[in-house]
From TrEMBL:
Belongs to the LOR family. InterPro entries: LOR, LOR_sf, Tubby-like_C. It comes from Phaseolus vulgaris. This is Protein LURP-one-related 15. Pfam families: LOR.
Amino acid sequence: MQNQQQRPSAIINPKYCAPYNVDLVIVRKVLALADSFSVTDVNGKMVFNLSASLMTLHDHRVLVDAAGEPIVTLHRKMTTTHDRWQVFRGESTEMKDLIFSVKRSYFFQLKTKLDVFLAKNTKEEVCDFKVKGSWFERSCVVYAGESLTIVAQMNKRHTAESMAFGKDSFMVTVYPNIDYAFIVALILILDEINQDKRQS
């Protein structure tokens, strides 16, 4: 039987799986009405963008690639107590295009813990991935299921530019053969959930 970690874990698309560590920089531009995110490689080359419009401020956001093509839609279910988000292929919000969903592990929690369920995991008895982190420290770790196997981690990045221009930036390391578009989507959902906690 093949080692699980050696096979590419293509959640969104195999082209976002690399056989080496992928380092990404996520920059949040703090705007008056909504935050926007850009995701670059360490050389500053654009990889993804997430912009919020007034029409889709909190419950519906679209991640696009460098060419502006939609990759996934992040959609918040408004009626759940655990902050459930669903991620769909392209600009769809139809269940047939669901890729994965994310919810807080517990309703009350000091440090954020998110359970991630792939679409085929309909029973949701055991999560496929878990996100643990302290948003105030701007750090988080993504694990494979209930294991201690780390697939990605994020840390705060301090730069002179971020201090001067009101930009928040994070350094994300995605481990080999892990879908980095999937990891970026998880971190953006983590941010949304923590924004909601600060505002409530």
